[in-house]
Design goal:
Elements lengths: L2 H5 L4 H33 L3 H29 L1 H21 L3 H30 L3 H33 L3 H4 L1 H15 L14 H23 L5 H23 L13 H31 L4 H7 L1 H21 L2 H17 L9 H8 L1 H19 L6 H26 L4 H26 L7
Helix pairs in contact: 2-3, 2-5, 2-6, 2-8, 3-4, 3-5, 3-9, 3-17, 4-5, 4-8, 5-6, 5-17, 6-12, 6-13, 6-16, 9-10, 9-17, 11-16, 11-17, 11-18, 13-14, 13-16, 14-16, 14-18, 16-17, 17-18
Length: about 450
């Protein structure tokens, strides 16, 4: 029986819904927590450094465990690990809501990041498996999956503001519980298990430790450079730790019989090009959103809730462009949507160079909107390209590699762009925009070289 017939035994719409719920809670906790930081600080008596770790503990744990989570999904079955991720995320959310102090909240946030790491690659692997060999269906499904993340990002600040005003800061974590329970029910009912990839040896624990140390060291160094300076001993200590851990990681992966990151994947031009695109997009997008939030509140004088409303057009544009990008990729392949989207995003960053402290909101949005439209067009093609460039038995691992690069780049982007905006926010926004435009142009060239015109997702 053809693979497509087997994999369409389940209604694809319900498969998309179940897997999208996992992505939704992951993205919701990226945006919703920022609105609650002031209230958390007052309630749990924490300073700015502690509140920063409330955000960073989630992001770093998320990035650090993605590769192992992808490999685990390939070994045990992506549906099984996806359900496990929902359980871990839900339990950690309950622990966050009940945390009596900041250290326990930070620890629970790190466990949330672990749950998110289990969810992300395995949701993609299950969705990829359900589409079988139907490339247009896969591209459309990826567009809807990424759109769910866009909805969560856009709704997070608004939902968070309402919940905090009515029920307190802990309510932003309680809201995850019914979503996780619904996801588990749908997963057991409508998701088929993926084929298992039989590895030699055990899980790559040494590689996992080195990967975590590398991410922690590099990200921590960038954060400390903003707080202290690039000349501070602590900055250089963290940077050295990250670089040494990175070299050790490459040595371990090149010699391991069962590496968490098979370096041979990067010999595939399409895989490498799409991974570079994911890294650049998240570095530029997450960093820019962070700087813009500072711009709205410190330069424009917006309240936190008004800032959430101000970002709505941006987030809605990302969501709509995700759907459009998925449909375009299903018809003409990923190369042109990715290339055109990246160049459109670069043009938006160039337009931001004309923004200053007196720029009206409508003018700012007109200059800004090419960025989410362009990036939104590129992301579904990027995701589908990564998944289609490897055998389906390795799709969870491939998704883990892509999302590790994206989350790590996003964390570094926030730290780097925050450093640029530390003295003068407008000047920092200009410098961040110029850097982002250059990186997106380079990513577009990488796409043109790495993907053949005939390549389809």
């Amino acid at each position: 029986m053809p693979a497509t017939t087997i994999h369409r035994a389940r209604p694809l719409g319900l498969v998309i819904l179940a897997t999208s719920l996992g992505f939704l809670v992951v993205q919701l906790d990226v945006s919703i927590v920022n609105v609650a930081l002031v209230r958390i600080g007052h309630a749990l008596h924490g300073g700015m450094a502690s509140l920063q770790w409330v955000v960073d503990a989630y992001t770093l744990a998320f990035a650090a465990f993605l590769l192992s989570a992808g490999a685990l999904g390939d070994r045990l079955g992506a549906r099984r690990v996806f359900v496990l991720g929902l359980g871990v995320f839900g339990a950690a959310s309950l622990a966050c809501a009940l945390a009596p102090n900041l250290p326990l909240l930070i620890a629970a946030r790190a466990v949330q990041g672990l749950g998110a790491a289990l969810l992300m690659p395995c949701s993609l692997a299950v969705l990829n498996h359900a589409c079988g060999d139907d490339a247009p269906a896969r591209a459309r499904a990826m567009g809807l999956w990424t759109a769910a993340g866009g909805v969560a990002l856009s709704a997070g600040p608004l939902v968070g503001g309402v919940l905090i005003e009515r029920f307190g800061w802990s309510s932003i974590f309680y809201i995850n519980l019914p979503v996780c329970l619904l996801g588990v029910a749908l997963a057991w009912r409508y998701l088929d298990e993926t084929p298992r990839h039989h590895h030699e040896g055990s899980l790559d624990l040494a590689g996992q430790c080195c990967a975590a140390a590398m991410l922690l060291g590099v990200t921590g160094a960038v954060i400390e450079a903003g707080a202290l300076s690039w000349h501070a001993p602590r900055t250089w200590l963290l940077l050295g730790l990250g670089m040494l851990a990175g070299l050790a990681f490459l040595c371990i992966e090149s010699r391991s019989r069962a590496p968490m990151l098979p370096l041979g994947l990067f010999r595939r031009p399409a895989f490498s090009a799409a991974t570079v695109v994911g890294l650049v997009v998240n570095f530029a997008l997450y960093g820019t959103i962070f700087v813009l939030s500072l711009y709205f509140q410190h330069v424009g004088g917006y309240s936190p809730s008004a800032t959430g409303v101000a970002f709505l057009p941006f987030m809605i544009a990302v969501t709509a462009a995700n759907v459009l990008g998925g449909r375009l990729a299903s018809r003409i392949g990923p190369r042109m949507p990715m290339t055109v989207g990246l160049l459109l995003g670069a043009a938006g960053f160039v337009l931001l160079l004309g923004v200053d402290a007196t720029t009206r909101y409508a003018v700012l949005m007109a200059r800004l909107l090419p960025i989410p439209v362009g990036v939104g067009m590129a992301v579904p093609s990027m995701t589908a390209t990564v998944l289609s460039s490897v055998p389906r038995t390795r799709s969870a691992l491939a998704a883990g590699v892509l999302n590790t690069a994206r989350q790590a780049a996003g964390a570094v982007g926030v730290a780097a762009f925050g450093t640029l905006a530390g003295g003068d926010i407008v000047r920092g926004l200009h410098m961040a925009s110029l850097l982002s435009a250059a990186l997106l142009v380079l990513a577009a060239l990488t796409t043109m070289l790495g993907l053949r015109p005939s390549t389809t997702p």
